Amino acid sequence: MEASLQADVLDGVPHGFSTAAGREGGDILPGAPRVRLKQVHSNKALIATGPWQDPPEGDALVTDRRGVVLTIVTADCAPVLLADPIAAVIGSAHAGWRGAHAGILENTVAAMISLGARPERIRAAIGPTIAQASYEVDELFRKQFDVEDAHFFAPGREGHYQFDLPAYVAQRLRDAGVEQVQDLEEDTYTRPDRFFSYRRATHRGENTTGRQSSLIGLAA
Predict the structure, then answer these.
(1) What's the pLDDT at 21?
(2) How far apart are CA 127 and CA 75, in angstroms?
(3) Residue 198's pLDDT band (boundaries 50, 70, 90)?
(4) Under a CB-based contact definition with an 8 Å cutoff, are residues 206 and 217 in contact?
(5) Contact between residue 186 and residue 74 where contact means Cβ atoms under 8 Å apart
(6) Could you give the angle at the alpha carbon of 102 between the alpha carbons of 196 and 78, nearest 5°?
(7) Which domains occur in the chain, in start order?
(8) CA dihedral 37, 43, 45, 51 (to 10 degrees)
């Protein structure tokens, strides 16, 4: 099994989405320090210049520094890696439904723009994520979204819907001006041989600590 997946849209930019076989994501820039956050399902995007001794809370990282690797972890939420190769600005975002709904992707793009990126040049890849067929939600969940978001919800069993998180994330990226978006279309829930899934582990009464790592860097 592959230890790491790459996205065509980020060709030429060191990056990787790990599978369960390579949970640390490998060395996309051998020897480079990794920058991490305390992920809390927020809309907070931080500009990083290097690793923190005590990582702050937040759910997206942006940098124009070469020789560092931005790292996020997920296990059903959408990992999003972004790059403007011309400006040499990169970003990584942890986009669960809460963060996406609250604006984490728009804030990530805004932070990249503050470092010289332009939205029409930004490329974004959505890594392994729980797919619509696997993501059942209830009426209370549905009511937190606007009328124009109805197409992200398919009818499910009585009182429930199937939510399309990857499509919602892609739309929020497009709303922020990012048109070059690739979804790897990898469902974390249905592939226990390939990915960790928090929801699947919860349903099965298994250990829920497994996570995929998603990494992106700028070569020195």
Answers:
(1) 86
(2) 11
(3) very high
(4) no
(5) no
(6) 20
(7) 4-217 (3.60.140.10)
(8) -10
